[in-house]
């Protein structure tokens, strides 16, 4: 049994010597060379204190955050565009005297149009006895029914208003 123990210890010792020699002669120089290559790579990428892999991870994280922000902005722009299609940025207002026997310009025509020229023109006619209000649809800056001069003037003012 003593011989077996001696043989096992001799085998383990020789394995340890071979492993140590392999480490010193092969693995350690290769690991040192690999570290030098990684350091050189990091230096070429503008290294400094941060490693290239850390910078790449940060860039990937920033790209994901930018995509998320871009998606949020796209949704916001879409909702604003939907709102803008129905807004009334073009307003034209004309006051006029409908009847010779009534003083002052108490009658008016008011055009409320969106950017494409769709909307309504409202006309209020004032007389000594009563006041009447009329509304006409407008499509592409053209009234649906025969317009008065004042209604056409209000539509022209609205058309010239903010685009």
TrEMBL record:
InterPro entries: DUF4446
Name listed for the protein in its UniProt record: DUF4446 family protein
């Amino acid at each position: 049994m003593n011989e077996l123990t001696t043989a096992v210890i001799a085998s383990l010792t020789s394995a340890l010597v071979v492993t140590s020699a392999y480490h010193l002669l092969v693995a350690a120089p290769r690991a040192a060379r690999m570290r030098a290559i990684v350091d050189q790579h990091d230096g070429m990428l503008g290294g400094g204190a941060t490693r290239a892999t850390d910078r790449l991870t940060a860039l990937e994280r920033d790209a994901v955050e930018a995509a998320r922000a871009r998606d949020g902005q796209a949704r916001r722009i879409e909702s604003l565009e939907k709102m803008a299609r129905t807004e009334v940025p073009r307003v034209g207002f004309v006051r006029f005297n409908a009847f010779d026997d009534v003083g002052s310009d108490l009658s008016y025509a008011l055009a409320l149009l969106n950017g494409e020229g769709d909307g309504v023109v409202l006309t209020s006619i004032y007389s000594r006895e009563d006041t009447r209000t009329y509304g006409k649809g407008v499509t592409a800056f053209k009234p649906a029914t025969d317009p008065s001069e004042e209604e056409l003037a209000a539509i022209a003012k609205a058309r010239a208003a903010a685009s």
